[in-house]
Amino acid sequence: MTEHIVLYGKGGVGTSTLTSNVSAALVEAGFRVLLIGCGPKGDSCSILNGGIPLPTVCNQLEKNGSITFDSVIRRGFKDIYCIELGRSEVEQGATDASQALDLLLKHDLISALFPDLVLYDISGDHACGVIKALSEKINLHRIFAVTTSDFNSLKAVNSIMEQVKRLADNNVLLPFGGLLPNGIANSFEESFIADFAKRTGTHILGKIPRSLIVRQCELYGKTVIEASPLSNQAYFYRRLSNHIVDESRSLTVRQPPKALSQEKLSKWALEWADRLFALENGLVTDGASI
Description:
Elements (H helix, E strand, L loop, with lengths): L2 E7 L5 H14 L4 E5 L19 H8 L4 H4 L1 E2 L5 E4 L12 H10 L10 E7 L3 H11 L2 E8 L3 H19 L6 E9 L2 H14 L7 E2 L2 H8 L4 H4 L4 H17 L13 H19 L10
Parallel strand pairs: 1-5, 1-6, 2-4, 2-5, 6-7, 7-8
Antiparallel strand pairs: 3-4
Helix pairs in contact: 1-10, 4-5
């Protein structure tokens, strides 16, 4: 049975890079993987394709009036299947990610690939609408939230938690798989995200540390798994991919997270601001405030 997994992150937190590396690790482990990029730029799969952006479903529809298997599906690293939904730049009659997904389903292009896992890379300001459309059309197994230690990133995760709750209230179940900390550089960042997870009743699957190897491999147009397979960074991606599969295939669905109200979120931010102030001004030492 094909498992459909969403990886969501606020724009700029590295969701596409993480998703591509996880996809590469999964196909390396023997899974048949399809990665579907849901962003308007259509660049989710580029580092699986030598750094070259793929033609999007929306653009192919505008150009040719229809789509075919060969026009929208590419094989990337180790034969990972790649599709970019994209978004039309034409103001009148524009095609969005939801309509592009309808086309894929209408032409049966996803099931025709017989994937073990379909990963959806979703980021940016329009993520809520894309997630809602996906959850209404496809039986999604899990949604994972990619986040940095940036407060705005965690605010975006909090908003997605709210949406998961709204979908559940409308009988659309989308189990929350947990947080995926990305680009983590120090213990403060780990503690900050861990405290947010505790406050919202969710959990962390595993961190991806910050590393220049990631940037280097992107400049080569490749994933870390392909360009630096023996590096420690590749190990972190492989371990995270195992955690994602284990969580997605778990028969026990965890309790949904409880998003913080705006008042509680602001109060929590102020508490951490006070902790950092104490640390920076020598009122505590050795990270005692965190």
